[in-house]
Write a structure and sequence with these properties.
Layout: H1 7-10, H2 13-33, H3 43-63, H4 66-89, E1 97-100, E2 103-109, E3 114-116, H5 118-140, H6 146-169, H7 173-189, H8 194-217, H9 219-225, H10 230-240, H11 251-262, H12 285-318, H13 322-346, H14 364-383
Antiparallel strand pairs: 1-2, 2-3
Helix pairs in contact: 2-3, 2-12, 3-14, 4-5, 4-6, 5-6, 5-7, 5-13, 5-14, 6-7, 7-13, 11-12, 12-13, 13-14
Length: 395
């Protein structure tokens, strides 16, 4: 079925307006965060530049149709894995490789542009590959059984473990958790029987609880046996009791809590912050919003994320082909987890993992990765009517 509507009718203006609101919030928050003078760089203009690049990425993403993404999913996935592999084998002493906060996760870009983090793009590449894997599996196994579901689960596990191993080696625990969240969401959406996934999910929860306990009481065991870095354990016990480590590991969380709490209901106003929070233009941008705009301003930001997730969910339910549905569901899971983890770590609900706040925190790689994901949603909404009856086109 061909879509006879023009560009203006097919373009998602609501989603574009939501992204525009995030741009405004991001520039306001970053410009205020810079008054601390932690860095000499003007991150407002750089963020605006990356948003401009993001718009180009969205336009390029819309150029391709869902069926083309389906065909290119594995080459795109493979490209992301190759970039992670390069980071793994290249020594940190090379100028092309950047190492920050104990993690070798970035490539330096020439001409002073900055650096790029392949893992941020790999999240979306992984979603594309996983969506194709699930779609093809269901097309080949029209009758679902426990056996076919187990086979699908093994396929998903293999697809996950390859990029996850490289990212854990960097090490980047926060990004690794995002991959796990995406995987869990798509396993549920894929319709795998609860007879299989319920024991796995319960086992995963139990393992997570055990690791938290070991991070507090058996730190040497985790370091010596499993190769955990000591700073990762420090993030756990400083999260549970930050005031006992106020001069080192717990300082960041304490300043974030003080900043958000001091904003009270209506905040102190733009540029009127008193509490100094390190890296407040990136991972802790929510602390700036909470202090300057209070509970009301923070609630507006959270509500905007709810609106974004609601709109993306609405689009997902409108999509007619399975592949596009899985891709969109994976993107929803990725953004939702990012928001929950970032805001949660600033208010001591979750441990600090270094995950940025989508579309608001400064960061070229994070913003471009999220804009690529949103670009896929734009594309699938723009083209989806053409593929209303294309479910069996590959048969």
């Amino acid at each position: 079925m061909e879509n006879k509507k023009g560009f203006a009718d097919r373009f998602d203006w609501t989603l574009a307006f939501i992204i525009l609101l995030f741009l405004i919030i991001s520039l306001l928050a970053i410009s205020s965060a810079q008054t601390t003078g932690q860095y000499a760089t003007n991150f407002v203009f750089k963020q605006l530049f990356w948003y401009g690049v993001g718009v180009v990425i969205i336009a390029m993403a819309m150029f391709f149709e869902p069926e083309q993404y389906k065909k290119l999913s594995w080459p795109i996935y493979g490209t992301g894995v190759f970039l992670l592999f390069l980071l793994f084998i290249l020594p940190g002493s090379l100028e092309i490789v950047a190492e920050r906060n104990h993690a070798k996760s970035w490539f330096h870009l020439p001409f002073g542009i900055g650096s790029i983090q392949p893992a941020e793009f790999m999240k979306t590449f992984y979603i594309l590959g996983l969506a194709r894997l699930i779609t093809i599996h269901h097309e080949k196994n029209l009758i679902k059984t426990v056996k076919t579901d187990l086979i699908l689960l093994v396929k998903i596990g293999v697809t996950l473990i390859i990029p996850l191993a490289f990212i854990l080696k960097q090490p980047d625990l926060g990004t690794s958790l995002v991959f796990l969240a995406i995987t869990a969401a798509l396993i549920i959406v894929a319709g795998i029987t609860w007879k299989i996934i319920l024991p796995i999910f319960l086992g995963g929860i139990g393992m997570g609880g055990l690791l938290l306990w070991m991070a507090v009481y058996m730190q040497d065991f985790l370091v010596n046996v499993f190769g955990f870095d000591p700073y990762q354990s420090a993030r756990i016990y400083s999260w549970l009791d930050p005031y006992s480590y106020a001069n080192d590991e717990g300082m960041h969380l304490i300043t974030s809590l003080n900043a958000i709490g001091s904003g009270e209901i209506f905040g102190k106003g733009y540029g009127e912050r008193i509490v100094y929070v390190p890296e407040n233009h990136t991972d802790f941008i929510f602390a700036v919003i909470g202090e300057e705009y209070g509970f009301v301003g923070a609630s507006i930001v959270v509500s905007l994320y709810f609106l974004l997730i609601f709109h993306l969910t609405k689009i997902t339910l409108q999509l007619k082909d399975a592949y596009s549905t899985y891709v969109s569901a994976g993107i929803i899971a990725m953004i939702t987890f990012h928001v929950f983890e970032n805001i949660g770590m600033t208010i001591q609900l979750l441990p600090i993992t270094g995950i940025p706040l989508p579309f608001i925190s400064y960061g070229g790689s994070s913003l471009m990765g999220n804009m690529l994901a949103i670009g896929l949603v734009f594309s699938m909404k723009f083209h989806h009517r053409t593929y209303m009856f294309a479910k069996n086109e590959d048969d």
